[in-house]
Amino acid sequence: MRIKTDFLVVGSGAGGATVAMELAKRGKKVLIVDRGGIANGKDIGTLKSAVFGFYDKCALRTSTEGIIVYRALMAGGTTVVSCGNGVRVLEEELKLRGVSLENEFLETERELGIAPLRSDRIGPGSRLIMDAANRLGLEMLPMPKFIDAAKCVSCGNCILGCKTGAKWSALDFVKKARRSGAKFIRKIDVRSVAVRGGRAIGVVAKSPKGTVRIYADKVILAAGGIGTPVILKRSGIANAGNKLFADLFNVTYGVSKQKEVDQWKEVSMSTLSTKFMKDKGFIISPFIDVPLVLRWVTSKRKQLQGFRYKNLLGIMAKTRDDDIGKVTEREIFEKTLSAGDHERLREGQSVARNILLEAGVEEDDIFFTKPRAAHPGGSAAIGDVVGSNLETDIKGLYICDASVLPVSPGAPPIVTIVALAKRLAGAIS
Ligand SMILES: Cc1cc2nc3c(=O)[nH]c(=O)nc-3n(C[C@H](O)[C@H](O)[C@H](O)COP(=O)(O)OP(=O)(O)OC[C@H]3O[C@@H](n4cnc5c(N)ncnc54)[C@H](O)[C@@H]3O)c2cc1C
Question: Which of 65, 89, 237, 376 is most buried by a 10 A CB count?
Fold first, then answer.
């Protein structure tokens, strides 16, 4: 099968959906393709559909060293399972590389309706944690969210997809792009970029019906921090896939003496402390894994015996990890933890533990998860694989997703990726 378009966008997540929507709004002929399927209605918001439907390898995708790195392969990308956190990251780091996003940040924040989580949506568990953190001087505040508090029912299932539509996801932008005339084809797995005379002329992909060749004047890869470098490597860009980071995190749990705080039914990551971001490279935020996942990821399983979910308090320490990972052409990735990574995780865990003790949890009732990650990026970074205009050495081939981020943000990157995509659309349309 052969298809022809002007702008081809590969991937419909944070970067892809945004650039496609912006180009379509400007009247351009746009085709979006994604290797995932679509999930909506009853498919969204359940553990079964998330694990068996759209998380990569049932949410057990690991690096060669066994670190789980989460991503969703579906229309809307990983934004569908996000916690709705909307913060600016890497503003200064990008400016230093010639990328100023001030206007795009403002536009993104307006469009996604970003505001600190409404006070009545911060549940008792998160409040216990916030109060304890603030007594320790950690300046914990409501998290800026792209969640409409009026529609949110505090089910605690943000990371399984939002049943009520309260949370923005890139699917909203895919819909807007389509309303402006963009075409969207699912289940198209792009394998490589077709290049002629140093210029991208399209891609070669696999579909359920066989090989597809899509021709385009401009190709924008937005397949995410793991997907994009794979396509680049298969297309002859050898230095793609290096310098992978993933924003390693761990969660510290404590069993509260207070009855039935039910933090697991609260908005995930509803408050935030950035007190240690600048000097120590981590943020702190209340978080509880969905029950089944908790059993998979905790290192001290015996402490799970007999504990009551309703009494559980959980705190995530998300860190800025070293960019020493690698993605291979076969979509395998390495993520060795450096001494610095171990140190940041250990320090984050120690802060979380102190908050739990302050909240009245006893030492023996505290346990930790193994490190995991949810923000793979840096694998086609600005300054290495693309210039500040996000173009590769292959003319007409652009990258627009987490892979272009120059260093690990150690904090939620969606707002920055959306802002980058808006800037790119403005520049190439
Ligand atoms: C559980 C969880 C919670 C998170 N919460 C937040 C949060 O609250 N706030 C925040 O800022 N960040 C959050 N993140 C991170 C954020 O979701 C990602 O960093 C962001 O979505 C990355 O955007 P992207 O465009 O790079 O990739 P994605 O959004 O992952 O999109 C990539 C798309 O490319 C498609 N694709 C991949 N390979 C191919 C291929 N070969 N051919 C065609 N299509 C392909 C995928 O199916 C996918 O749709 C969270 C992540 C996880 C896992």
Answer: 376
